[in-house]
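From the thread on structure requests for the teaching lab: each student submitted one protein with a one-line request. Submission from student K.M.:

"Model VWA domain-containing protein from Catellatospora bangladeshensis, tokens only."
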Amino acid sequence: MRKLRGPVTLRGPVGLGGPQALRGSFEPVRPATLENARLVGARVGRIRLVLASDVSGSMEDFAAPCDAALDMFLRWARGNMLADDEIAVLDFAGSSGARLRPTAIASLPRRLPGAVAVDGSSTEFGPVLHSVAQMPATTSEVYLVLLSDGQLRGLPDDTDAADRMRAAHGLAGIRLLVPGADIEVPGGWTAAFPEAEPDRFDGNDANATGLTFARVLASCTGQFLA
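Reply posted by the TA:
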């Protein structure tokens, strides 16, 4: 796994997987709307942002706001990310499928393609990793962002296994976005990714969800929202 540049300073509820998963510092600036938010600050290099949405039964209530937020975020990304950055979107539960394969910002669709059929009998981490492994090779830093309640099977057993998993899949970092303050995330997540504390937000609010995507992006690139 490539080492990231610069010191790490945590100033808010962040925590990408891995001891070197954040570049620069992070300010928890919270613009009122995604439309009015802007990325500020210098950045180096390109990024591939993989957004993986848990579509299992326990996440059903958040599906519509999440889809609306993804459409908002794709529009916002065209004005804030580099033209050759990439975004990919996955749906996952017992299996995983790509709604949007890695696509350069300059070529993003106006709307996210429709949901893909996945096995809803369980919620598994492995299929997400398999989808990431099947993506075209890239020299960009790859960040995997899970929108989920954390009820995942197949997580690494400990931090050493998590480090090996990140290296094997070329991941610079992993994030878990949890759509509610009262959702209890099992201890297996923090056992594997202790520096990737769940980032909680109002998953019933599309704007709050979109802003969370933007905050995650800013933490990956070492920039800020203003």
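TA comment: The chain has one domain: 13-225. The radius of gyration is 16 Å.
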